[in-house]
Amino acid sequence: MRISVVGLGLIGGSMALDLKKNGFASEIIGVDINEKHCEEALSIKLVDRILPIDLALEQSDIMILAIPVQHIVKVLPEVLNMVKSQVIIDVGSTKQLTSESVKHHPSRGNFVATHPMAGTEFSGPTAAINNLFRSKAVIFCDVELSSSEALKLVSDLYFCLGMPIINMNSQEHDLHAAYVSHISHISSFALALTVLKKEKDAQNIFNLASGGFDSTVRLAKSSPEMWTPIFTQNAENVLNVLDTYISELIQIREAIETQNTEALNDIISEANKIRKILKDPR
Amino acid sequence: MRISVVGLGLIGGSMALDLKKNGFASEIIGVDINEKHCEEALSIKLVDRILPIDLALEQSDIMILAIPVQHIVKVLPEVLNMVKSQVIIDVGSTKQLTSESVKHHPSRGNFVATHPMAGTEFSGPTAAINNLFRSKAVIFCDVELSSSEALKLVSDLYFCLGMPIINMNSQEHDLHAAYVSHISHISSFALALTVLKKEKDAQNIFNLASGGFDSTVRLAKSSPEMWTPIFTQNAENVLNVLDTYISELIQIREAIETQNTEALNDIISEANKIRKILKDPR
Asked: What is the ipTM of this complex?
């Protein structure tokens, strides 16, 4: 199986690594508009060779679009215009706009919309790691619009990455992703900004970070290239959940200001319920 | 060296484990008003025996107060009333009120105010682990009020735990702790509350959590027994930094709502600067 990966970053690169290692891919063709990324990907053997996107498509069985979501909506229709029997996957973090961009495309069946729920705060080809995806969930969206052959192939691919598949439509996906993933990033970006503004002594941040700051702020290292388009594409859902988040903070603020220990105990006990869910809700 | 640990939870228990293991303590005496915790601590050999606080003090060289901060301000003056040559340490997360509670005590010199900057989201004797403190910083507060003998002994103790010592006065401590540690916990509690409210399907939270939620929400598992008194004791500083946090969120909200990608890019790039500091600012 020959696979081309468009976008040689953390996700595309990590998929390339695992798919080659476990034998699902016999060859990985890399595509990236960033020449430095192409060179890096070649030198660390993330990909076997680099081609322009049209030639890569011609020579591939599967093409994975692992580029920021605002580029997916442009590139995906172009790729589907050229497609023959190849299967196209995107791995973007928002799904509604992508879905709409090819809704009526005659080759829509060749495309499977997926979102592997894995990542780190690092980016670029050198961020790619083995086993990033193992035992994490992958969301398939709008599967009724994909051909059964394409679905079968993409299911096999994610099976090889060790990912259980969950089905949702694009609307549901974007809603749940805003609730659980996108808001986490916003809370973390705001936390980094706050501490950078309030705490002028970098040494203090470093020394005190083990008091909890380091884990909550980890996501604030994530790149604007990836996250700006996610927030703007999924604005309605993100704003909705962000408003709830701000109102929860205001409630906590109120309890602290009035020294209402009972209310604070209740609020924290309620928040503790997340423990049960993250353990295993099944 | 005989050490008594008052409060057999995560911090007290983990100190007991390491100090016994590395030979700094020949015996650990446990003190806790919670009988179940006493039994657990004995059965997992966290402590050698259990005594009431007054007898424990009589038989100890060092007493560590590892109880929630609202209890420290009550227990510490009582302990200092009984003290002879023993050295008393607290390990609380706020320092100003504690400091004031014994400011003019004739035995103030026997007391060293410390804050080891380490922890996990778990609590109780069974949460105690080895090497919790290694290479994390410990803050010493108001060292000019401690006797040089007491300071020497407590420095040795933390050296044995592998912790570099940083000096601050209590006011500075509470300010910096609010900036870096306390606000992280608030952001995490609010995140847990938001997701629990918006996302009714627990399975979705579990499946999507690897999208970043799991790391930002880790601290939301922390107990109200510990955190309610920290927030109320350190209210002024916490409210101040919380207001900055909320205003940062509102700025992000504004940029998303107006689809201002340039502003969002700037905001995220600014937040990314935390990367440099957390790596190593020295």
From this structure: 0.88
